[in-house]
Design a protein that fits this description.
By secondary structure, the chain is an all-alpha fold. The chain has a domain at 118-238. The chain contains 10 helices and no strands. It has helices at 2-46, 50-73, 79-82, 96-108, 127-141, 143-146, 156-169, 180-183, 189-198, 206-228. Helix 1 packs across helix 2 and helix 7 (156-169) packs antiparallel against helix 10. It is globular and about 85 Å long.
Length: 238
């Protein structure tokens, strides 16, 4: 009888384990499928086709409504994401009631209250801040590929260097885009001559100009990055 009882418990544990494995497999499968489908939808919508654009709008409404429903019933389930974010998906409207609802939503979600991002003032329209955001977004998207640790005050330099170098390696040329003005001080006459003399040259070559532009852009983006990423609690997206 004891042996039969033991076998029954083993079978029950095995059944529970198989059920959990099946649930995990479903979550992974559904999430992966959703991301692939959304990528295709965004690609078609960007081409300007009315049907994909309209579908993207409707799907976004559905997703935001679903998030709002979760926030109403169990906001704590969203805190692992919302407390470490400085923006959140929400409906916008000219109606005052929507603005009030979004204020409540931000409060309920503790938006940005527990993350590593700084509460200091930073200007999203500033090119240096946009550069810092690009570095952060790239690092978050490619964290596994770049083998990055948890983002903290102690590791933020590792994050910046790894993400910046990755962007450059994949063909991004910051000195040719909207970040170019950040580096132009490095090629003004006095600094240009100084930089050239440090290399034993009388003037900057085109290659030196590019390198000096990029170095100055990197310096200013790093400064914005260090302002943007504060000294708060660690954030782990795994």
């Amino acid at each position: 009888m004891a042996k039969r009882s033991t076998n029954g418990r083993r079978k029950a544990k095995l059944a529970a384990l198989n059920s959990e494995i099946s649930a995990i497999d479903e979550r992974i499968r559904v999430c992966g499928q959703a991301l692939r489908e959304v990528d295709d939808l965004i690609r078609l919508a960007k081409a300007g086709h009315p049907l994909p654009v309209g579908t993207l709008v409707m799907l976004t409404h559905i997703m935001v409504h679903a998030l709002n429903s979760i926030a109403d019933s169990s906001p704590e389930s969203l805190w692992p994401w919302s407390r470490h974010a400085f923006v959140w998906p929400a409906h916008i409207s000219r109606k005052r009631e929507f603005r009030r609802a979004n204020e409540k939503l931000m409060s309920d979600l503790h938006l940005g209250k527990g993350g590593v991002y700084s509460n200091r003032k930073w200007q999203l329209s500033a090119p240096s801040t946009q550069g810092a955001l690009s570095v952060i977004i790239n690092a978050l998207a490619r964290r596994d590929a770049l083998n990055l640790p948890v983002l903290t005050r102690a590791t933020k330099e590792t994050w910046f260097e790894a993400s910046w170098n990755d962007l450059i390696a994949r063909g991004i040329r910051p000195e040719e885009g909207n970040l170019k003005p950040l580096g132009e001080a490095a090629i003004k006459p006095k600094r240009a001559v100084k930089h050239a003399n440090l290399r034993g040259m009388s003037k900057q070559t085109e290659g030196m100009k590019r390198d000096d532009l990029r170095a100055e852009i990197k310096r200013q983006v790093r400064k914005a990055f260090n302002t943007f990423v504060g000294d708060a609690d660690p954030i782990d997206f795994t």
